[in-house]
Every structure is written in structure tokens, then in C-alpha cells.
From TrEMBL:
<dbReference type="InterPro" id="IPR023753">
    <property type="entry name" value="FAD/NAD-binding_dom"/>
</dbReference>
<feature type="binding site">
    <location>
        <begin position="190"/>
        <end position="197"/>
    </location>
    <ligand>
        <name>NAD(+)</name>
    </ligand>
</feature>
<feature type="binding site">
    <location>
        <position position="322"/>
    </location>
    <ligand>
        <name>FAD</name>
    </ligand>
</feature>
<feature type="binding site">
    <location>
        <position position="60"/>
    </location>
    <ligand>
        <name>FAD</name>
    </ligand>
</feature>
<dbReference type="InterPro" id="IPR016156">
    <property type="entry name" value="FAD/NAD-linked_Rdtase_dimer_sf"/>
</dbReference>
<keyword id="KW-0274">FAD</keyword>
<keyword id="KW-0547">Nucleotide-binding</keyword>
<feature type="binding site">
    <location>
        <position position="213"/>
    </location>
    <ligand>
        <name>NAD(+)</name>
    </ligand>
</feature>
<comment type="similarity">
    <text>Belongs to the class-I pyridine nucleotide-disulfide oxidoreductase family.</text>
</comment>
<dbReference type="InterPro" id="IPR036188">
    <property type="entry name" value="FAD/NAD-bd_sf"/>
</dbReference>
<keyword id="KW-0285">Flavoprotein</keyword>
<dbReference type="InterPro" id="IPR001100">
    <property type="entry name" value="Pyr_nuc-diS_OxRdtase"/>
</dbReference>
<keyword id="KW-0520">NAD</keyword>
<dbReference type="Pfam" id="PF02852">
    <property type="entry name" value="Pyr_redox_dim"/>
</dbReference>
<protein>
    <submittedName>
        <fullName>NAD(P)/FAD-dependent oxidoreductase</fullName>
    </submittedName>
</protein>
<dbReference type="Pfam" id="PF07992">
    <property type="entry name" value="Pyr_redox_2"/>
</dbReference>
<feature type="domain" description="Pyridine nucleotide-disulphide oxidoreductase dimerisation">
    <location>
        <begin position="357"/>
        <end position="466"/>
    </location>
</feature>
Amino acid sequence: MAVTDRLPQQPQQVDAVVVGMGPGGEEVAGRLADAGLDVVGVDERLLGGECPYWGCIPSKIMVRAAGLVAEAHRIPGTAGTAMVHPDWRPVARRVREATDDWNDKAAVDRFTSRGGRFLRGRGRLTAPGEVTVGGMDGGETVLRPRRAVVLAVGSEPSVPPVPGLACTPYWTNREMVEAAELPESLLVLGGGAVGLEFGQVVQRFGTAVTVLEVAPRLLGHEEPEVDEVLMRALTSDGVEVYTGAEPASVSYDGGRFTVECARGERLTAERLLVAAGRRVDLTRLGAGVLEVDDTAPALPVDARMRVPGQDPGGPGVWAVGDVTGHGAFTHMAMYQADVAVRAILGRGGPQAEYHAVPRVTFTDPEIGAVGLTEAEARQRGIAVRIGRADLAATARGFIHGPGGDGFVKLVADADAGVLVGGTVAGPYGGEVLGVLSVAVRARLPVAELAQTIWAYPTFHRAIGDALRELT
């Protein structure tokens, strides 16, 4: 059935409504349509969500291009000579191609070809078992699902309440991805994954980048050793990094941004990127209808992704993705989508578990982590054992540049004899992480892992070196 800008004005009886058609919502809506349900997907932006248009896909195109530039600079002294002239234009062109110039027609056609209907507009809960969609033309459509409401609204960039910031033309990840040209200088508010990835990328293409992080270290939710590795790599690239730097005010004079910090720094740049995390607006979603705290950072869900406390006589309400508070990752939304679909269709299967959630920051070197950090494990009262291996020793000189001082760190439960967490900082850290993700997820005994034959010479061999410190 073809996409419509507006459904008829009278309340529509359908089987299921999915509010938010990012990766998780699209997966749920598509699979419910495949099962024969009458499904309406709702989104006020592009079908597919943040990931294919402003997140994962375009940003990794940018990361890959910057990696090529960095590798070319490493040729002298290791493989000959090279002259490198970075050019952002082919990168911007490739991003536009990959996003269909921010057009979702192909995605909409893909969904509607499965039997679903797509309604572009802002969906919100207006009563138990009722979703009202504000259309792009100002009209409203009321949907009353018989079977399920699925909330997959994703999240928005979080903008800190710094005096003056809201009145400036700052960038978020969306403007950064859409940039056809790069500024000569860039201030980045936030030393998390988004800020560090973009900061390193554009620095390698000639932009002077300064990163401000309020916390005392970068990627503060990861192992403290990660900060040390990234600081060396970023400063080697020319990125200026200020940690423990709290912005006191932001101003814009029509050509340059100025950030005044509480401890006295005064920094200026042509552009300002706000990369201070993500937030979910439950009030805008109308979550108060569900009798939950709509000022909370996330919706409560059970192990089947269902929002508890709903009228058993009405349609069930499920939630997947960022809105559940279990990590703003595409892979999390897809994982939860599978759990929700099986629950809605009554197919049973495994419930959601979160002890082995992988996460990757695509800096150079990459930072891959899964499960608990050492600090988190100790906070939970686990009898912790730590194993660590340096990549420089494992690689024996075949790494040149950032990553040569990377590491693998393992966190084990000494009583249970299993890994509860692991971190890989180094080349292909996200790929090497796969082994640890399986081990933590399956709770494989450390004694069995220690018997693994690790191929030589590989980066993942460092896992075996770290295991020997545990046993």
C-alpha cells in the first residue's frame, strides 16, 4: 500500500501502530506486517531514523576517509614517500549518495512493499490505546490499534543549559554530517564517542579542532586507561583537548563562536559542535497516558519490552531502542525489536538480557568494550580479577602510529570463573571485541578460554596474553 501524507480523519482501527521508524521501529513494523497484521508506522522525519542519515552510516564513511588520510601520512619512514592533500568534497559527495541526499523514498517503498502503511507526522499517545498523529499539513489523524502500540522514538541531541548557547547557530551531529564544506576551526562540546569521532575526522581534513569535556577524562564511562590512549592519539593528530572544562557561557558574533569556561579558558572557533549526549522527551511523546513519570530519562520496560501497568483489556504497549534507556545503539534497538516482535506475536523465546552489551567508539585507535568495567564490577560487589595485555608487545612492531600503545583489558568474576567485561583499545578494536562479546554473553569459563589457540600474528592474540594474567 502506498505512503500517504494523511490518513482519513475519522479514527482508524488498525492492528498495530509503531511510533518512530528508526532501525528498531522499522524492524518491528516490517516484521508485524510480514506476519499479516495491519500496521501503521509513524515518523515525523525520515523513515530509517538517525542511523542511516545522520549517525552510524554517514559518520563511518567520514571515519574511513579520515583513516585513509592518516595512513597516507604514515607512509614516510615505513613504506616510502607520499604527499597528502586532503579534500572534503569527495567525502561529502559520498555521504550524500549513501543517504540518497536525505531522501527516504527507497526506505518507505521497502516498508510499504511489505504491506505496511507509513504516516509522516508527529505521533503521541493521547489516551489509552490511542495514538494521534499531527500531520505535516497541520491536520490530525487518530489511530486506535487493536493489538499493539510500539514506541521507538529514538533520541535527540542533548543541549546543555549553558548561558547563551541556545541563541547561537550551533551544530549537532546532523549539521556536521550534512556539511558540504568544513570550517577552518571547530569547538566541540563533549568528549564522548560522537565528539571524539567527528573531532578527529575533521582535524585530519585540516580543521583546527578543540574538544571541551566537563568530566575529568574522555569517554568517562569506559576504563580510565582508555583516556590515556585517546589523549596521546588525539594530541598526536593535533586536536586540542581540555578535560574538566565546564563552559560558563557561549556567544556568537556572526562569524565566530566564543566559549568562556568556568576556570578561565576563553576559546574561539568558526563553528561549534554540541556533542553532549542524547536525550528522550517522554512529555512530547505523551507518556503520561501510560501513568509513568514523563520527566524520567527513559520508559520502564520488562524483559519482553512491554511497558508495565497497562490495562489488560486494551492493546499492549511496548518500547524499543533509545527510549528504554538501555543504550543508544542501533544494535540495541534491533535486539530489542526481535524480543518485542516475538512477544506481540506470542512466539515466546529468550527474554532481553543486558549483561553483554557491546559498544564501539570509532576513533583511531578504536575503542571496543562489552559488559562491565572494572569499577562497575567492584561497585556490584564482584570478586574482581584483572588481566591486561599491551598491543605494542603483542604486535612486536608491526603497528605504526596510534594504536601501538593500545591494550586489551579483561574483567573476570573470580568466584564464578567467567568474564564479566572486556575492553580493546587499538586497531580494529571493534572487530577484536567480537570474541569478548561472545565470551561474556555465553558466560564461557575462563579456564576454557585460556585453552584457545590464537592465530599469530594477529591483534586478537592479545586476548590470550591478557587471559594468562587471569589464570
